[in-house]
Every structure is written in structure tokens, then in C-alpha cells.
Amino acid sequence: MVHIEEQFQLPRDFEGYGPNPPSAEWPNNARIAISFVLNYEEGGERSILEGDAHSEPYLWEKGSSGGHKDGARYLNAEQDFEYGSRVGVWRLMRLFEEFGWRITIYAVARAMQLNPAFGTWCREKGHEIANHGLRWLDFWELDLEADKKYVKDSQNLLHQVTGEFPVGVYFGRSTPNTPGMLPLIFKEMNKEQGTPKLLYSSECYNDDVPYWVDLPYEKDLPDEEKEGMLLIPYNYDCNDGKFHMAPGFTSSSGQLYEQYLKSTFDMLYREGGKMMNIPLHSRITGKAGRAEALRNFMLYVSQKEGVWVTTRKDIALHYRSKFPYKPGSRRGGE
Pfam families of this UniProt entry (predicted)? Predict the structure, then answer.
């Protein structure tokens, strides 16, 4: 039975910003902020060599027909993941070098540990390291203390391997308590180790602009002692994982993907003041045909005025500066 700790349960919000959502007022009057996110998971997935019962059946090239093998290595799956770390990740990073853009890496700690040169390269090039878990596994049933330990261990291992202590988090497979507990865990680490507090969480998919949430466990504190939590929304609809999901992009080719990204950009760009998420995986969009489609999209947006391509960390820093936390306010502000 999964344990639910009420003080860490964030309330649902069906109203949001309503019919006239405010602009995030991006720097230099940009009309849109684009956040490319590379989910770096290769080596952190399920594997017999890592002590798991079977190889990883999820999000690799054979899709739903791939299956898995119990009790023995499944080289087909292993090597598709290896393509991501050996080839795909560098193809994608060359694209970002070509355009001079910095991105956010949702880094699985074990994956970075197995390819430390990539972590060093990211730090040297100014890309952001965010926490995507200790391994690429579902940890839904961890108890409260094990949950805290998981977050701390993943933070510390990423710091050790990459030289950067992540200030942003996206697990996507957490316990029901993890998202609401993150600020508290980071505060504990700050007291224990002197590491930074949580800058933002992306454990949400319900908006196109950042927003603040009040933390239930802070409800009895004086307003001046409340810190709240800044959420930088993520998405599934532009996620390249849909190449291997149903109904997904309905084809393994990149053209429908490119078209969908452009349509999403066009709407958000016209509305103004929004952010666009583009989640990537090195073993998926790192394949040559899809990378070319992604490059076509990158060329398309690079020719538009007022486009801010940046890291989630910089989005969070902007939003905190422009709209600081104010208890009871989604937007924040003085």
C-alpha cells in the first residue's frame, strides 16, 4: 500500500490563470521562451547488469513490439539505449552548438555516472543539469524516509559526477509525496551540506507559463516565513517519446513531429508571453532522420524575432526576479 502524507499533497487547481493568462514578460520583450530538454537516461534503465529482473521494455526503437526478456540480457534493447549515449546525444548536442543554444539536461544520475565525459562537456558548455532520478525507474512505493534518501542520493551523485548540484527537478515517476516534499528535502540538504535550495520543480503538466504554489506544510507559518514552490510546467504532447507510444506521431519518421512542433510554436508565439517545452531523448530524436526534422524546426524558429531559447534554470531565475513568491498568488509579484 502506498503511503500518503497529507502535508505533502498539493491541491488540484482547475481554474489556473483563467481566460486572460498573464504574460511571463520574458527578457528583451521576447514573445516566447523555448525550453529544449534532453532526457538523458541511457544506462539508468532496467537491465540485468544493474540487478533488475529484466531488460528495459519502454521507449526504445521496437516500441510496443519490443517486449523484454526475463532473467537474461536482451541485447536488442541494451544496444538501442547505447546508441543514444554513443551517437545520438552527440548528434543532438552538435545541433545546439550550431545554433548557439543552451538547454536543460534531465539527467539520470546512474546514466551520467556511466558516461562522465558527457556530464563534464555539458557543464563546460553551459548547459543545465537537472535531476531526473537516481535511476530511470518507478519509485512509487518508497516510504517517506526512503523517498527522501532517493532524492538526496540522486542529487549528490549528479553533483559528484558532473560537478553541478541540480537546482531543478523532474522525476516523472515519483511517489505521491515527492513533488510536495522537494522544497523540504532541499532545505534539509542546505542545512546539512550547504547546497542550494530548490529553484524550481517541473513535476506538472498543466499550464504554458510558470506559476507558484503554496505548500500545505507552510500554512501555519507567518507569511514572511513562507517560501512556496515555483513550478515550471513540462509537457507530453511535444515529447519525442511519442514516436514509441500510441497514438504518438503515428510514424517513426520525423515529418509529422516537425509539423506538430511548428504548429505548437505558431500558436504560442501568436499568443505571446508563454513557454514551449520540447522534450527529447538521445536514443529517439538522436536518430539521424528525426534529428534532421528537429533541425528543420530549429531553423524555423531561429528566423523569428523575439524567441528566447534558454534553460529552465534561467526561466526560473527570471520568473523569481520578476514575480517573487506571494502567498496565495499563482503569479506572485510585489
Answer: Polysacc_deac_1
Q: What is the pLDDT along the chain (334 residues), one digit of tens a residue?
A: 788 999 999 999 999 999 999 999 999 999 999 999 999 999 999 999 999 899 898 898 887 677 788 888 988 999 999 999 999 999 999 999 999 999 999 999 999 999 999 999 999 999 999 999 999 999 999 999 999 999 999 999 999 999 999 999 999 999 999 999 999 999 999 999 999 999 999 999 999 999 999 999 999 999 999 999 999 999 999 999 999 887 677 666 678 899 999 999 999 999 999 999 999 999 999 999 999 999 999 999 999 999 999 999 999 999 999 999 999 999 998 7
288-298 CB burial, b ≥16 within 10 A, e <16: eebbebbbbbb
The tally of domains found in the chain comes to 1
146 belongs to a structural domain: yes
Q: Quick check: helix, strand or coil at residue 278?
A: strand
Is residue 94 included in any domain, yes or no? Answer: yes
Backbone angles phi, psi at 40, to 5 degrees: -100, 105
Is 210 within the bounds of a domain? Answer: yes
Q: 135: domain CATH number?
A: 3.20.20.370
Q: Is residue 270, in this structure, part of any structural domain at all?
A: yes
Residue 97 to residues 68, 121, 298, Cα–Cα distance (Å): 36, 12, 12
User: In terms of residue numbers, what domain contains 253?
Assistant: 23-322
CA neighbor of 284 nearest in space, from 36, 43, 81 = 81
- Indicate whether this model's pTM tops 0.70: yes
Cis peptide before 247 (omega within 30 of 0): yes
Grid coordinates of 263: 504548429
Q: What are phi and psi of 105, to 5 degrees?
A: -105, 115
Residues 6+ apart with CB under 8 A from 127: 96, 102, 103, 104, 105, 311
191: cell is: 542545512
